[in-house]
Amino acid sequence: MPQTSPCTHLREVLKRRAHAVRPNAPGCQECLEEGGTWVHLRLCLTCGHVGCCDSSPNQHATRHFHDSSHAVMKSYEPGEDWAWCYLDEQMVDRIPSFPEESPRHHVFAPAEAR
Q: In this predicted model, which residue has the larger pLDDT, 67 or 111?
């Protein structure tokens, strides 16, 4: 199957990755505030918002996209460098990443760490 080129949003992110995006929280920002839990974390490559994935109960990463229109996010899991565009529903397997954009280990929600 032929590989399709990334959408314009992913291409723009790939082109301008000169500096790290600083995560705004050590875990899902809303879950930390509300006492919620998450499965995996995602990092907005526009503003650094950390939200929980769609397998998590509250799906805060997707909510952030709907509230902000920030289309591209990447995995905020150790060893994962893929990115996703919400607008075009397209993924790239690898995106240039900086150390601060991936935690050293999976971050558990405070309620799960007990």
A: 67
Provide the Cα torsion 19, 23, 24, 28; round to 10°.
160
* CATH of range 8-113; options 3.90.1150.10, 3.30.40.10, 3.40.50.300, 3.30.565.10: 3.30.40.10
For residue 73, how many other CB atoms are within 10 A of its CB?
Answer: 27
Which residues on neighbouring strands pair with residue 83, listed in sequence order? 74, 92
Look up residue 99 and give its DSSP letter: G
Whole-angstrom Cα distance, residue 19 to residue 36? 31
Burial 16-38 (b: 16+ CB within 10 A, else e): ebeeebebebebbbbbeeeebbb
- pLDDT tens digits along 10-57: 988 888 888 889 999 999 999 999 999 999 999 999 999 999 999 999
CA 110 to chain centre: 19
